[in-house]
Amino acid sequence: MSNYVGSIDLGTTSNRFILFDKKGNIFASAQKEHKQIFPKPGWVEHDPLEIWKNTCSVIKEVMDKPSVSVASIDSIGITNQRETSIVWNRETGKPYYNAIVWQCTRTDDICKNLVSEAGEGFFTQKTGLPVATYFSGPKVKWVFDNIPEVKQDVFSGNVLFGTIETWIIWWLTGGPKNGSHITDVSNASRTMMMNIHSLEWDKDLLETMDIPLSILPDIKPSIDSNTWGVTQKSGPFKGKIPVCGALGDQQAALFGQTCFSKGEAKNTYGTGCFLLMNTGNTPIISRHGLLTTLGYQINNESAVYCLEGSIAIAGALVQWMRDNLGLIKSAAEIEDLAKTVDDNGDVYFVPAFSGLFAPYWRSDARGIIAGLTRFANKGHLARAVLEASAYQTRDIITAMKKDSGVDLTLLKVDGGMVLNELLIQFQSDILNVPLIRPKVIETTALGAAYAAGLATGFWSSIQDLKTNWSEEKRWLPSMPEKKREELYARWGKAIERSFDWI
Asked: Cys-Cys with 70: which of 168, 239, 406, 495 at CB 3.0–4.6 Å?
């Protein structure tokens, strides 16, 4: 009998493999970082072959444990950094170019031309998305426009496109021989190429971007009892395990947080920061800078939609403090440094390193530190770094209320940054709502495991998942309203000063 479900978590900075037991607890895990490549200002890339190699490495590390065997694993679920795009050759498995990461801004001119030619509304009504460098379609177009070999090979039927989960599923299930070329609805909804109403690739969108349908993966439900294939004996698992669940990382966190009811919301504090609210089986097209996205689909049931607010830089700003400025030696040290001061000293950090995402969508913005005086020190800067995520989250909550008409009464939080209690208390204060952290904060990986385990019957229903969820800690707001609004107004000034840099 199988005791565990495996989750492959393909993040922006690292890959992980985690085994979860029936109660949703972590049994074993391994993690490995991959290189961040910055060829030009605003450009961000990953090496797809390094990502596959590292995925194999973390799987092997877990599988080598004495108590783990192929027979002990029921199924495999995948979760991934979403819009990051790869174009590769079906015969060789070789990428034509590095993976272009979701943070990359190189497609700014392409996006402007798309809006000029077709209009913003043409894309929004079909996809629920604004035209932005964030999404996959313009990245694929850039590859076709700049790598001549791709256009030559497309006629042979050997060119494939996929986001990171598609790339890894293809390798896990056979690769160049007979790998499954699939994606799920949650990831497909982030490409600017899928119609969110029909859940199919849209001919008009593809024609507008000059992208051939032949390169695209088949779109599948997120939780699919018709498995997409099995792992290969020649691969890292050294045996056959069904691969049958996939969710984009933020939808996986929503699933792992068991936000299955309309109006429930979660916020994940990772490399970026992503707040999703379940809006039920009907898409709500945002009028206030949010994204309409697929939350998940269970087999052939009606799809569940979400409103999403996406922040490009959250934990990545802490990494920048560590790696670029050297003010801390580890990410965990940011909290102690911030605690050396009582407040932010009127210092505000707008981390628009690759423009601003929701609700502003300003590719012309760049990062600024505002309010500096000789009084300011590294403690104030550290505090401003943490507070930036909280202020940006409030920007999104404000827009979400306007779109949905729903007042947020509490917020479930997860991701690596939620261990930073100074940040989470400030977030509760600036939102004026309680924040809840679950006992298992690895909700992204857990959501992917839940997807696979539901597909096979390892978990019989979503009620089993709700039973597993439990609260570890709750934060309550304690900041006076006057101070809250004064701080937020100053943040608004800083945001405005980041505009029109490019």
From this structure: 239
